[in-house]
Amino acid sequence: EVYFKNLSKQKQKTIMEKNGNNHKLRVCVATCNRADYSKLAPIMFGIKAEPQFFELDVVVLGSHLIDDYGNTYRMIEQDDFDIHTRLHTIVRGEDEAAMVESVGLALVKLPDVLNRLKPDIMIVHGDRFDALALATSAALMNIRILHIEGGEVSGTIDDSIRHAITKLAHYHVCCTRSAEQHLIAMCEDHDRILLAGCPSYDKLLSAKNKDYMSIIRVWLGEDVKTRDYIVALQHPVTTDIKHSIKMFELTLDALISFNKRTLVLFPNVDAGSKEMVRVMRKKGIEHHPNFRAVKHVPFDQFIQLVAHAGCMIGNSSCGVREVGAFGTPVINLGTRQTGRETGENVLHVRDADTQDKILHALQLQFGKQYPCSKIYGDGNAVPRILKFLKSIDLKEPLQKKFCFPPVKDNISQDIDHILETQSALAVDLGGTNLRVAIVSMKGEIVKKYTQLNPKTYEDRLELILKMCVEAASEAVNVNCRILGVGISTGGRVNPREGIVLHSTKLIQEWSSVDLRTPVSDALHLPVWVDNDGNCAALAERKFGHGKGVENFVTLITGTGIGGGIVHQHELIHGSSFCAAELGHIVVSLDGPECLCGSQGCIEAYASGIALQREAKKLHDDDLLLVEGMSMKKEEIVSAAHLIQAAKLGNTKAESILRTAGTALGLGVVNILHTVNPSLVILSGVLANHYVNAVKDVINQQALASVKTVDVVVSNLADPALLGAASLVLDYTTRRIY
Fold first, then answer.
1. Residues 445-456: tens digit of each pLDDT
2. What's a Gene Ontology MF term here (predicted)?
3. Catalytic-role residue among 158, 428, 532, 730
4. Residue 23 counted as an annotated binding residue
5. What is the chain's alpha carbon radius of gyration, rounded to the nearest angstrom?
6. Residue 292 marked as a ligand binder
7. 187 in a known ligand binding site
8. Can you give the pTM of this predicted structure?
């Protein structure tokens, strides 16, 4: 024994040196309800008592914060713990859907808390749906998890949740030898399992020495004697709500007939609890002279009440676990605790079709005194747990290992599957060209095809299908597995249905067009469709400057002006799919006419078409060409000629570009004042010519609070194609879109 003690001390010293002598283990304890706090509180007191080793952060969520369940967070405050965060995570409804929604709400809120706390380890207790959300969040955020009471067996959905948390947890504290064996059978690492006993037993085994009569009188009345009252605590069984409510009715009928003073605690927040409360009220329990109905009793007082009761009845785990420490008779109803280890004080009533069976059980059990049971602990769990926490080496790999039994290796492998690259088929429908590309998961354009965009609907759709089929066939030759087709197109798009609602004059005969159906039918692949501006924003979010940025705007400066807005990492489409039509922000009431029919739009000033229009005017007046420029007689005047003239000192060309840059800058200022992004990305062939002008206008015209915005030029060569590909690739990697 001396040898092993010295060995343990030496190991702890080595770990302290590895972790850094001054490093305190930052422990986050998250508690969801009155029951789990009774198990976690002794550990929290132990951690708080050793500030030289630990820092404690307390997170409170779940039914702790609900008035109907007693606002039990107050007992945590009364125990003098600082609550770091309160998270309202319960969606009321007390049905199956509400439980699922509560888990989802907790998953939404917890990442922000864990990011701020940055704990070294999170302690999670038991088998509640709230605990599953805690364990899932911590595991995905690479936070070590210590799970209390894993490996136990009981009825209902709790079993599945408990074992799911076990698979997410890195360390395990179990209460019984059987639970330890179950964890080992579940392939958990034996070195990371501690058989400590139940932490609540550290309090229970010293509880009887305290004054108890005053507590009994407070909760049950002045005339009540010890061993002459009943404590009832029954919860819904989520896998058979209807039957559990029926059994609760029979229980109340039996208790009324038995005619003893009874303390009834309200059920927990599980699905079916609302119906159980209705049953209580229907039978008048809250006003019955023999009953006291309460939402919550502080754990210290609850211990005294069950320790000196004539009987406890219900289906709470407390009945089969903690109450055994006092030898109080227990009647366990239904299947909720099926599989739990119990002492001889527990009488099981698995099923009851009438109240007589329960009434008979009450007559058998009431007033008896059984030997005290220590199945779940010996009163020394907390010191063992603290020692276990101190032994954790934070420099060990976070990835947990499972101890699987040996199995025969499968040597069969598919070389084609190994070599294939998961890819998307991307389609870009521009005003001039139609392009199709095979794009890999990393954003590499493996193969690209380009054709002129036909003028009629029939020819255009025929060409799209032909090019897509050709590209899909070629994908096999370049070892690419096509996961789906993403289509980027000009115009207003309903991405949910894959329909182009209508387009500008740049693409003719392109309104009310169902793109998804014919492409999907031809290729037998899923198809996504969106506006080209939105696709450019998606490309930036996945492959470009927008990667990891919560709020940003992309502006395309090409033949037209478009863009996309990403807010809180998600693309904004708007109520009628018209969000981010940034080219049609009006910057002048009497400006030039735009293709949309309005006047003074950004697109009427700064698009390639607008610059081409101004270049033609100068050319017609013989004011475009300057020394160093030449044009062939048949050559069409374009925006490129205007830019070249400005570079060679043509003051009129310079003035036009300056006006275009100012118009674009004013539009950006309007965007900054509307959605307040942290980043503006200029994309397209004209982006480099406009970036400085946009920055100047922001400095001159924007409010001081948005002047710090970053304005950058996209580094993506083909944002429309990459955005179309990201429609597919984001889905295959389970991003929400």
1. 999 999 998 888
2. N-acylmannosamine kinase activity
3. 532
4. no
5. 35
6. no
7. no
8. 0.52
